[in-house]
Amino acid sequence: MHAEIARELAASGDPFTLTLNGIRYVDKPPLLYVLAALGFRAVGPSEAMARAVPAAGALAAIWATAWLGARLLDGGSGIVAGLALLTSVGFFAFGRYVRPETLFVAALAGGFALSLVGIREGRRGLCAASLAVFGIAALAKDPLGAVLPPLAIGVALVLAGRARPVGVWLPWAGVLACLVIAFGWWILMEVRTPGFSWYTAIDNHVLNVARARRFPDEDVPLSALQFLAVAIFGSAPWTPAAGVTIWSLVRRRAWRAADEIAWEALAVWVVGVLGFTALSPFRLPHYGLPASFALALLAARGWQSHGGRGLGLAHAVFFALIAIGSLLAWGSDGSRFLSSIVGTTDVASLKSSAAGLPPPIPPFAEFRPLLGANAIVFAAGGLVTGLLTALARRSERARRLVVFAVIATMVGALPSCAAALGLVASHRAVKALASDVGRLMAPEDLLVHEGPLESSGALEWYARRRPVIVDGRRSVLGFGAERPEARDVFWNADRLREAWTSGRRVWVVSVRSPARSLVADLPSARLLAVTGGRALWVNELR
Questions:
Q1: Backbone angles phi, psi at 518, to 5 degrees
Q2: Is the four-CA dihedral 200, 225, 295, 63 of positive or negative sign?
Q3: Could you give the 3-state DSSP secondary structure of residue 56?
Q4: Are 481 and 475 in contact (CB under 8 A)?
Q5: Could you tell me if residue 529 is left (phi over 0), alpha (psi between -120 and 50 degrees) or otherwise beta?
Q6: Among 143, 292, 355, 397, which one is least packed by beta carbons within 10 Å?
Q7: Phi, psi (5° rounding) for residue 531?
Q8: How far apart are CA 54 and CA 462, in angstroms?
Q9: pLDDT tens digits, residue range 245-283?
Q10: Whole-angstrom Cα distance, residue 236 to residue 223?
């Protein structure tokens, strides 16, 4: 979906009129789409170019995290912090998605790095630059990215009694740059698209939290426990070390010490992001990602200050448990693994289940070799980590190597993670279905998508045909659907029936189950396939 928006932007050249399927799209700000569109104009639209942008964002976030860790601790700890972020499974996964999350994390990590070093070293210029970078965070994903990070840093300064003079850490030049970068685009968008500001600030934030949106989509939120489990295990195995650091700060009442301001700010950010999201009625798996870089930094501090036998033993036991769990899943029929691990945390599976379709998950047999490889990697990692921990009492070198054994174990697990993501993506992608439909369609044929288009966002990308949409207003395009130019794109059931019986061949890609589909009641409807969480219908075959 995001790549298709960028492709349409590359064609139009207007970052103030983002579109999907030609319909005004206002759900996300433009940074991802502008960067991808520039790449498309340079080398042509491609999957590789689309994926290069969030991958570059992930590398930038890792670099900023490592740089801040080196400035706050030392070079070795900076490397640990950067590698901790890289090997956090949730962050690694989103680095492979065409989504704005890694760009958002990169801007947050860069802004915190500049601000905290600027405060620590009394460099007002770095503080001003940090505010400009937080403004970029607002262009990457959310205007709150420009507001909440300075608030978290301000809380840490207030607790330390160092908030004044405010101009030292909030210099007016930086505040002005933040406002212009963060909100200039939003103001111009409101001029071009009246109602955009209300949609963004009220409907997409306030009413979303209150579960009373005027323009809801079909996302299925996680429970508070599911969200916390995804956030904690998505940053595993670094969460325990980060927790040790946070607990140490609280126990020592470190907020009163000036040299702990940076760590207090990172702790406030982590607790704030995870705590407020858990308390919110609406949560998605990626809502914990903004805390990932801070968790990595706090973990590096934990390993430096408390990286003795306790942490080493905890990680050895953790790896052993993952190895045992992977082995048990490998030897099972996979039903519990698919339902408890994938079916309860994967948004696409939750949406498909709500629509009455089978979850778009590959057969368990395709996961089995990856679980076997995981069992071997984590068993070896647990053994090495345990041996080094046992030697740590007598050898300072062994103590330092424990954390790198943890890193090596996680690096060894990343190929299985990447392969699992590839399996899921290839199974649920609209690519094969759309390519086949595009090849079979005659020039006069009609393509229809039943349900919200974001569920098959790359349909136009691969089919090279623009669909009309039926039963798709409960969508990220809900706002755009009310605009005059959307009148001929969003159809009702009567208009579909009229086209269906007009003698024109009609192809329908549906994200509704056959039993719930509007097409099932149409004459001569032929169900050709149900695959990847979609059904394909046609009214005649030639």
A1: -65, -25
A2: negative
A3: helix
A4: yes
A5: beta
A6: 397
A7: -155, 145
A8: 21
A9: 999 999 998 888 888 999 999 999 999 999 999 999 888
A10: 20
* DSSP label of 257: -
Helix (H) or strand (E) run with residue 490 in it: strand 490-491
DSSP H or E run through 63: helix 47-72
User: In this structure, which amino acid lies at residue 326?
Assistant: S
Q: Cβ(300)–Cβ(80) under 8 Å?
A: yes
The answer to whether 186 touches 197, Cβ cutoff 8 Å, is yes
Q: Give the Cα separation of 184 and 186 in Å (integer).
A: 5
- Peptide bond before residue 237 is cis, with ω within 30 degrees of 0: yes
Structure tokens at 384: 């090495």
Residues 6+ apart with CB under 8 A from 38: 10
pLDDT at 282: 87
The two structure tokens encoding residue 61: 């976030």
Split at pLDDT 50, 70, 90, the class of 541 is: low
Structure tokens at 427: 């199974």
Question: Six-digit token pair at 284?
Answer: 């998605």
Helix or strand run (H / E) with residue 448: strand 446-450
Q: CA 25, CA 18: separation in Å to the nearest integer?
A: 5
Q: Tell me the C-alpha distance between 452 and 217, whole Å.
A: 8
Q: What is the mean pLDDT of residues 440-448?
A: 95
Whole-angstrom Cα Rg for the chain: 25
- Specify the pLDDT at position 171: 96
**Structure-token pair, residue 365:** 């047999």
Q: How many CB atoms lie within 10 A of CB 292?
A: 29
Torsion of CA 29, 31, 33, 36, to 10 degrees: -170
For 448-480, what is each residue's pLDDT tens digit? Answer: 999 999 999 999 999 999 999 999 999 999 999
Kindly report, residue by residue over 162-189, the tens digit of the pLDDT: 999 999 999 999 999 999 999 998 899 9
User: What integer best gives the mean pLDDT of the chain?
Assistant: 92
Angle of the 144-160 helix axis to the 172-192 helix axis, nearest 10: 150
Q: Locate 363 and state its tokens.
A: 């057969």
pTM above 0.85?
yes
User: What is the phi-psi region of residue 263: left when phi exceeds 0, alpha when psi lies from -120 to 50, beta otherwise?
Assistant: alpha
Helix 101-121 / helix 261-279 crossing angle, nearest 10 deg: 150
The tens digit of pLDDT for each residue in 475-515 reads: 999 999 999 989 999 999 999 999 999 999 999 999 998 88
Distances (CA, A) of 276 to 113, 144, 492: 23, 13, 39
pLDDT mean over 103-130: 96
CA distance 100 to 369: 31
The edge-to-edge listing of strands for the beta sheet with 534-538 is: 490-491, 468-470, 446-450, 506-510, 534-538, 526-531
Burial class from Cβ neighbours inside 10 Å (0-12, 13-18, 19+) for residue 308 reads middle
**CA 520 – CA 360 distance, rounded (Å):** 21
Q: Under a CB-based contact definition with an 8 Å cutoff, are residues 527 and 510 in contact?
A: no
